[in-house]
Design goal:
Aspartate Aminotransferase, domain 1; alpha/beta; four-stranded antiparallel β-sheet; binds pyridoxal-5'-phosphate; Aspartate Aminotransferase, domain 2; globular; 36% helix; single chain; 12% strand
Length: 426
Amino acid sequence: MQELAVFGGPRTVPAGMVKTWPPLTQEDRDAVMAVFDSNILHGTSAPNAVALQREFAEFLGVKHCLVTNSGTSALHMAIAALGIGPGDEVIVPAFTYWSTAAAVLHHNAIPIFVDIDPVSFCLDPDKIEAAITDRTKALFPVHIHGMPADMDRIMAIARKHKLLVIGDACQAHGAAVNGRKVGTIEDTCGFSTNRSKNLSSGEGGLFVTNNDEAFRVADMLRQFGEVLVHGQEREYNAYGLGWMYRQHEFINAFCRSQLRHLPENNARRLEFAQYLTAALAEIPGLKGPATPPGREPVYFSYIVRFRPEELGLDLPVPVFKAAVQKALAAEGISLGQWQRVPVPAQSVFQDMEGYGKGCPWNCALYGKQIRYRGEDYPETLRFIAEHAYLGGVYPPNTMELMELFVAGLRKVMARPDAIQRLAQAG
Ligand SMILES: Cc1ncc(COP(=O)(O)O)c(C=O)c1O
């Protein structure tokens, strides 16, 4: 048996073998360079903006799309375009990137957190109804890690209580539930195209909706509250509050070029994830993610669960996890941590300063006193304690790399004695 790399043995994955995301091609470079030649750098009617919106809408099968300068701006537009605002509550999962909740606060509404379910790690439909009050306006499921939320049940709860549904699909371009892509099911939805995302343009976002009125309002919000009609002179009149959420044509051109490869890249992620999950099922101590029936994830990230009891180790999960992470890092395998606490436990929700002086929580239009407590979300706490993220599970990485990952995971997990030693050394 080979010694673990952490104790001086050979490392499993050669240095430099794990490639970064996204794969870049000459086609991407040509698309960006063509923008220089066109000399059209921005504008809501600019050719790449218009074409990207059409192409992404076609990819999803949704009526309207607007390109924005971040996922957060797309989410803010998704809230604001539905008329959600001061005094309204929006139900958000306690496990997400906090931008989901920030988008609610950006429009002076109040995020109310609900725990995640223990299988998909998305908003738990069983816990939503207990959080609904006379102030609740909308549900805001997040398709986390590329796993679509339980949209059938979430939409049924929304219909029953006459609530709107906003989607955070920042991590889920192309994910589907029973054949329907996320973004086409909700009233409005936002996607991120920042560097790490399945559809990457470095920075950026995409707002989508099937609702004509939400589209009209979102279009206005995206550019200073003005109404711009292609081919007509600009009025310079703001019809309401607006922001500057336009995108640059370099990015629009780059995003279009990347979009052409999204289906094949998602298929590759799925192939890698299925291979890893099958392998992990046979490796005591670690497990891959489960997919509930009807859901078609796109594996924005590949999550791994730590199970010390399967190795007969009587260690707290975080201690076991830290020891395994250390051993794997030496093998050239990154099993990293993302969120460290539930969103409601973050300082912004503990301090509740908001815009300053406690706004929007102390807004007279709200008139309620709430407190956020991280300990109210046991499944979120459990998820954070028990999981880490395997880096490199995307193209241009290859199946050969996935096989090395499995070899390294097997090698480390075959040595509970060494894991125990690392755990004791701290
Ligand atoms: C779940 C989720 N929501 C929102 C965002 C915000 O997107 P962006 O960074 O493009 O503003 C991200 C990504 O950072 C995300 O992962």
